[in-house]
Amino acid sequence: MKVAFLDRDGTINLDYPDMDWKNVENPILLDGAITGMKLLNNQGFEIIIVSNQYIIGEGVITFEQFNSFHNQLLEVLAINNIRVLDSFICPHSRTDNCECCKPKTGLILQAIEKYPHIDLSESIMCGDSVSDLKCAKTMGLKFYGIDFGENAIKDLSCLPTLVR
């Protein structure tokens, strides 16, 4: 199974400064997100969201706030006929030294444990931060950076033209 591992904030939806998240209620999708994710699905990619959410562990938002926002996002994607296989989230604070906070690979390893048919050689990762890039490199995934890196793309709609 080939997977597109996508970061969430700054890749699929608008990101905010950490402290502003406590007032964010509804997701605002970034330009190209819907188009790009649809085309990835149409090319046979399963989509898995992998996201650091240390603002939960650091008390900026609650799990309830996170779940409300994330479920709304998944609902918008479903309404647009985008299949998201799963989401793997790191809720720990940055000082917890957990194994799932990117750039560590725990979120990808959790996905592989749950879905053992994932073929990393056919899979990709896309995100907007160096931690996403480092995670992808460690796992041997082809990486596409939103506005940075050697495989920089403007937004997710640019991915399907690159991924064959």
TrEMBL record:
Residue numbers binding Zn(2+): 90, 92, 98, 100
Gene Ontology cellular component list: cytoplasm
GO molecular-function terms, A-Z: metal ion binding; phosphatase activity
GO biological process, one term: carbohydrate metabolic process
InterPro entries: HAD-like_sf (IPR036412), HAD-SF_hydro_IIIA (IPR006549), HAD_sf (IPR023214), Heptose_bisP_phosphatase (IPR004446), Histidinol-phos (IPR006543), PNK3P (IPR013954)
Keyword DNA damage: no
Cofactor(s) this protein cannot do without: Zn(2+); Mg(2+)
EC number: 3.1.3.-
Location of the protein in the cell: Cytoplasm
Main enzyme class: hydrolase
Residues of the active site: 7 (nucleophile), 9 (proton donor)
Residues that hold Mg(2+) according to the record: 7, 9, 128
Keyword annotations from UniProtKB, A to Z: Carbohydrate metabolism, Cytoplasm, Hydrolase, Magnesium, Metal-binding, Zinc
SUPFAM superfamilies, per the entry: HAD-like
The protein's assembly and partners: Monomer.
Family: Belongs to the gmhB family.
PANTHER family: D-GLYCERO-BETA-D-MANNO-HEPTOSE-1,7-BISPHOSPHATE 7-PHOSPHATASE
The protein, known as: D,D-heptose 1,7-bisphosphate phosphatase
